[in-house]
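Sample entry copied in:
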Amino acid sequence: MADSPEVRIGTVEREQALNLLGEHFGAGRLTLVEFDERSAKAAAATTRAELDALFTDLPPATPNTPAPVDDTAKAEQRERWRTAAMGLIPLVALLLFFVSGSWLWFLLIPAAGILYSATKGTKGGC
């Protein structure tokens, strides 16, 4: 976008202005009537000066950045769950052996170990 206020604007600039007005309305800086009036003016604007006039009494836009995600805490929690599951697998296999009488349930232990090793270090691993 050009700095000169006389420069004609296009649809993209109008949509950006409407989105910004919506953010200000959502933040409670504009009443419904003010939002409607300014939105109508933004939709009809043809120059940069007409859009700039809509924001003179509003604070500058701040980008909506989400709070940083603590990946290390999530990774540690995921690792605790994986370790707990690996500790329970032999007990589950033993219980299923006594319930069903089939020794094949003990194959669950190495299968779980393989899955544990294969997904260790992946971001979304169980």
